[in-house]
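Good morning,

Attaching, inline, the backbone tokens for the sequence recovery test we're adding to the shared suite. The designed sequence is right after.
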């Protein structure tokens, strides 16, 4: 693999990591604060992508689609929270898993009814078409650079909200000891609703950003959800800093593994076998890394401290 290709794949891995962080940030807060296992978080990413694509088509502008999709994704998250999820908070984790899996099936079929089963293509906005030269003779798509920038800016804003505001203080306290926060007079149900809605909006934002890169299709959130769970387990449940760093790590391992594994295996295997074995190995690397990290840090890299 050439240096140029390695650099491109590394940037692709960081971009994937940014999208994973936007999904995992809401998921880790919901899990950490509410002790609620939401398997349907991935469909909120999918809904964001569909809403962004539909609104961009209706308005004729990607930017209007993005701006309108954020409150729409937040409203969809609130609706799901009111209709389904708040009735599961007091239930055991098995009930939560089964119920939210049912939501996945319902919404995956729902988008097929509304938008059809065929993938939707979202055009890159004219302002971000073309590429930027990152080294002599190598251009990288400007839209992907913009995704990196938007993700980093969102991560910085989220850090400020969680670490420097009163609401963020309550969220951090709830992640550490929710019963104590409730006993101090905080409306914990309202806090739960706020966290859930904000997490849904972040996942929807990631879906809108992913639209011009990946195809928008039913079930697109399933693989992202799996990787997002890996991210929060590695980073530490309830930790925004852990989710950010773990997402970048997972994105790099997943992307570089798929690119490098077949090339490395060609040193000892014939090209056909190396390609097949490399694909199989690459799909395992993220989970091998997770197991290795948890062997030394069972609570994740940056666990939330118990009060």
């Amino acid at each position: 693999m050439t240096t140029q290709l390695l650099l491109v794949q590394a940037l692709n891995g960081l971009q994937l990591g940014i999208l994973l962080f936007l999904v995992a940030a809401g998921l880790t807060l919901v899990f950490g604060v509410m002790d609620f296992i939401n398997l349907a978080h991935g469909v909120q990413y999918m809904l964001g992508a569909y809403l962004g694509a539909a609104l961009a088509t209706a308005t004729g502008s990607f930017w209007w689609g993005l701006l309108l999709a954020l409150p729409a994704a937040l409203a969809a998250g609130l609706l799901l929270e009111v209709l389904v999820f708040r009735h599961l908070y007091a239930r055991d984790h098995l009930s939560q898993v089964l119920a939210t899996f049912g939501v996945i099936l319902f919404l995956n079929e729902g988008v097929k009814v509304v938008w059809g089963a065929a993938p939707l293509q979202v055009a890159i906005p004219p302002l971000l078409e073309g590429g930027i030269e990152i080294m002599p003779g190598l251009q990288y798509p400007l839209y992907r650079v913009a995704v990196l920038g938007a993700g980093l800016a969102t991560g910085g804003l989220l850090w400020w909200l969680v670490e420097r505001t009163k609401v963020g203080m309550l969220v951090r306290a709830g992640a550490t000891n929710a019963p104590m926060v409730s006993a101090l007079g905080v409306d914990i149900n309202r806090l739960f609703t706020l966290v859930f809605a904000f997490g849904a909006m972040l996942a929807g934002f990631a879906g809108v950003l992913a639209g011009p890169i990946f195809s928008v299709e039913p079930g697109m959130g399933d693989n992202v959800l799996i990787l997002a769970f890996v991210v929060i387990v590695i980073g530490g449940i309830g930790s925004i800093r852990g989710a950010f760093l773990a997402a970048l790590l997972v994105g790099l391992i997943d992307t570089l593994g798929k690119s490098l594994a077949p090339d490395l295996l060609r040193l000892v295997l014939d090209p056909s076998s190396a390609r097949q074995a490399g694909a199989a190995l690459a799909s395992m690397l993220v989970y091998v890394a997770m197991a290795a990290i948890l062997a030394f840090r069972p609570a994740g890299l940056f666990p939330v401290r118990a009060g």
